[in-house]
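Quick check before the chapter quiz. The format below is the same one you will see on the exam, so make sure you can read both the input and the output lines.
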Amino acid sequence: MKSDIEIAQSAKLLPITEVAKVLDIDADDLELYGKYKAKISDEYLKKIENNQNGKLILVTAINPTPAGEGKTTTSVGLGQALGRLGKKAVIALREPSLGPCFGVKGGAAGGGMAQLVPMEDLNLHFTGDFHAITAANNLCAALLDNHIQQGNELRIDTRQIVWKRCIDMNDRVLRNVVVGMGNKMDGFVREDHFVITVASEVMAVLCLAEDMEDLKRRLDRMIVAYNYDGEPVTAGQLKATGAMAALLKDAMKPNLIQTLEHTPAIVHGGPFANIAHGCNSVRATKAALKMADYVVTEAGFGADLGAEKFFDIKCRQAGLTPDAVVLVATIRALKYNGGVSKDSLNQENLTALERGIVNLEKHIENLHKYGVPVVVTLNAFVSDTQAEIRFVKKFCNDRNCDFAISKVWEQGGEGGLELAGAVLNTLETKQSHFSPIYGNSLSIIEKIIRISKEIYGAQDASFAPAAVKQIEKLEKLGFGDLPICMAKNQYSLSDDPNLLGRPKGFIINVREVYVSAGAGFIVVLTGAVMTMPGLPKAPAAYQIDVTNEGVITGLF
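Here is the expected output.
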């Protein structure tokens, strides 16, 4: 079979104006970025505000492994399958970050016959949203340092600057830097830091903002530093809000593209789930619910990270109620969790499958705690045996989950019909009783412990002395009622990537806690997780090139 990029480049795309007609969007309601991608106008979003909401379906997964799970591929394939069944469906996903595209992961547009197109555009510059977010973030940083240089009227303590610069690339040497070196006009010498754009608070703010008014309100209250009295200094006090909003004006508008089968897809925003809140924009999701009868969205990495934040942060803040969850797994990944090496995953091994399926079991239990019906889907591989499939199906049915095989990578929407049928059956026969797993009235420490025990299965959480002081300060400043955004390694339910399956008796180690006041949540750094990733020994960038005819190659 062809590679993902070869499939995408050989696809016949419809003009985006034709795709938009499926959602009853006129050409005048689009702002075109070429023939095959567009932004949806503010005027159209206002026009549909009073439409009835469709059904919201979240796609999540077990913890990621080198064996692969296929969450985005499943999301795209499910949307295509619903379209084949004559349902008015739209897919609402995140935009990929450049960092992983050139690092380990490669592209993030789905795979095989279940892809978003134009794939190269989406994986690279797309409509410039991430560049706008980077520029707005770094404008705030420049205004902050300029304020200090020009007399420091706000009495900013340069030892307590918390605002970080950002870049949408994996660049480990920028994690900790010194700035201002040189003569007097170059600014004060101080320690500074970079995060990847998808972990910046501006990204979180854009993805959680309802409209321009809400965006400016959130930008205004972002904390950039503390003064000599320990009081917060905000972007609003720096007079940065208006200019940042101007840079983000177009980035606020959701993007419309299509799948290989011309199913409409709204792709907007892209915070990572291991170091940020991991969901596409509230604005895009709410708009999608007004446009279609079925909305397929996803949250990053495993359900312990992405789904938890989707429920406890995004749905809580936006007033969303998910109707069903699709939990993606593969037999290969479950066997990997059971201790099988990567080169032996193609061999039938029911013993290893039984050992590793406990990871799936924990995610099922977690999702049921939120009161949302669950459909488990196996992303099929040719190496899967009937005995292995029967074992997983019975395991899921015994836990009150519908079950389906997904073959969307190989067959596109046709291979997702069984999954689509299971999802529709679940929506028709089971009621969602969604509720977050913790209340805002709990203390910050109580919330962290609740997530650690209930979702990760930890025995407890331990707090570094610095983290305890940070929590005390945040609660004193009035931020104690905010939800929690856990930054944790994605490969394990624990904060140790080597503990696979369903580890028990472990402790979640909290090393740092800070507030994203504009986004409206508390960020908790655990274990050794980094907010600026690095490149691997052989990054994906080595394989990417452009032919003399201008065709991009090697992009996944």
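If your answer matched, good. The CA atoms of residues 13 and 262 lie 7 Å apart.
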